[in-house]
Structures
1.
Amino acid sequence: MRTITNVRLPHPRNHEGDENLWCISLDNLNRIVEINPIKSNPLNQGQDWKGDWLSPMGVDLQFNGGMGINFPDINNKDIPTLFKLLDHLWADGVEAICPTIITCEIIKLRKALQVFREARKHHHDNRCKLLGAHLEGPFLASERRGAHPKEHLCQPSLDALSARINGFEKEICLMTIAPEISGTAAVISRLKALNIIVSLGHSKANTKESQVAFNQGISMLTHTFNAMPGLHHREPGPIGSALNHGDIALGLIADGVHVNPTMAVLLHRLAPEQVVLVSDMLFPYGLKDTNYQWNQKLLLAEKGTCKLEDGTLVGVKSPFLDGCKRLAKWNGTPSAAIWAATMASRKVLGERRPIQEFLKGQTLMQLLRWRGKLNGDYLNWQHAA
């Protein structure tokens, strides 16, 4: 048995987490057996972390590909590269991803789901996990489709849903839809019955339509601000409705391009317990910055962001936890930023335990140690063991 002392645990309301220091007891396998608050003066016994944070690894709910693999195009021959990608993600501090499949042909979608099913059979320790897939489409608003191919968008219906997911229902985690489109109510009901999380995205929903959607069971916004109406003082739209509702997860891409840092900070300050960092990672992740062919279009990958020639934002290629470091610097809230990258996504997936209870039983190898300034000017991470 050994201890590490003067440890901080991330908290969505930054300073509430920073005011508390913890003592962590480990067994001989480096597994956490006890987490106790330090009531008064910091302890000097054991390994002194001097206020560093301990957190789970990152979980990314929107990951479209990497190392040259575009998930809608994945096939069995890509599995060895997929394993390399998952190993690379673990090294980058990411424990799990929802492999995201944007709007595509039905045959491609079902093939991708089959490949992920096969790849999950070969998971092992110290490799990023493939959670259930995130289907981003095809029930999206054409006017807000962004880079999604218009020819593969589809009118929502139970038949259209079944044609895509029949036989894979238990291997889908999340689906993004535009709830204002006729037919989505039945689709939302069916997805909720299957325990699939439903997210609003690529939508032109107004305030009333968004409120109805949240009451029907939609519980998240996909890449908040992007591909949806903005936050307006006369028409709050889906963002204002989600903030007012109070328990809607707000997916946020923190690359500084998809959302201006000022808007990211405002959102985070308004709803620190709702913001969930996502990467919207694209296939150039793990590759160099250059131009790529993507869906018969030229994709420009530069400074961590991917765009089409016309300036349409497509995704990101910088590591997921870089977004956490950016948010911490912009907002001066490292604890809350760490929470948004590591615990908030788990809450979306159903984790409701306090972080100290969640960490018990885990080994340091599964966790991250964060060192930085309390104002967020500097924040970095390493594997805790």
Note: The chain has two domains: 2-55+353-383, 57-345.
2.
Amino acid sequence: MSLVTDAILEKINSLIVVVNQTGSVEYVSPSAKRILGYEPEHLMGNGWWDLTRGKNPQTSFVKQMILDQMKLESTLEIAPQERLLKTASGGDCWILWDISKGPLNTFVGIGHDITSRKTAEQKLVEKNTELLQHNKDMLDSIQYASRIQEAILPDVQKIKNSFRDAFVLYQPKDVVSGDYYFYYESGNKAIVAAVDCTGHGVPGALMSFIANAALKEVITKRGVEEPSEILYALDEELFLALNKTKQGEVNYDGMDVAIGVFDFAEETFSFAGAFRPAILVRDNQVIEFEASRFPIGFYAGVEKKFETQKIQTKIGDTFYFFTDGYCDQFGGERNKKFTRKQFKDILVMIQDMEMIEQESYLQYVLLNWRQEEPQIDDVLVVGIKL
């Protein structure tokens, strides 16, 4: 070739290789020196196969494929192919080949150096593999945390055994939940609480562990049984738990709590709530126990006020403790919140059902309401019938 042509072929970022009918290489462009580090003349004949392919087991296959294609009379049409070549320094060089028949039934390959792209692709694959493993490890940890969380939840059957009937509709938004329910019996009294911790998922679940520890400290260890006093004690315990390692910085995480105490001897129900109410359905009428407008935690330095409400109970009374996940769920034709009013209407409507049927129906209504909308929060409803 002319000096001008050689100069051009030396500068381009492509290889040109011509293979004859015997499989020997009879031409290699000068760019081989810059791309692969070999002098073109060293790649002539079998030098190409021996040097650039090394001990690649596919070498004989590729060479035979080329010879077979040369024997065909039809025009050669082969899709571009990526091949890994060895450089003179022992490195790797990826070449994307466009192949066609040349004059005198030769085989012409025009190869483009795609090493940078392949390296980037390989790094991306490695990064994706690393991320997939990281996600798997994280999900495994969350699944394990879910089993731990389930272990600290009270046995629903124990609640059912203490009353005429009961149910717990517990539906975390994620694998773990920021909602938590508590049950404890002491003598002739039973204490029930529905707790909605700050956040959901892992942060909410961690708060639920703190809530469980605080409730046990106040109720089971210290023996506090008055609902409003339980809330005051919880507020103190939570503040200390979240801020014991802080230096002047206040943590504003917290929880909303509805707590009721059933006195079987006096046939009374006492209630106090921190941002969470409770509902009694009696003779198809709704009685709502209002909650204080102060949460547990939050509002450091603000004087909070929790009050106990107390009523006589009667056979057939049905009490409901719940977090805000059910009523706040978006759905319906206008994609609005379900609302507490609709929730109370449903509770009245299902009074003739057994408690297990009530649980199933409440779950059905919620799913029917949200349709394709995602669940926006943890859901917890505890129903107790006297």
Note: The chain has a mean pLDDT of 88.
3.
Amino acid sequence: MATIRSYLSNDRHLGNTASELLLHYNTVRNRITRIEKLLDIRFDHADDRYRAETAVRMASVLAALTEPSPRP
């Protein structure tokens, strides 16, 4: 999830994503390729990218809603 989130927030720029995640460029490229195959999407297709961005945002919302609230 961190790879997808970073990749999309960096406008699909592998170099910036690699720097942000402290990974090698090829590692990010390989991860993106595997993610595309697993999810049967292509990040260079606008509809697929939109669905991925929506899923990432929804996952963040759900995570925020399910976090235990701090006790007073």
Note: The CA atoms of residues 19 and 25 lie 8 Å apart.
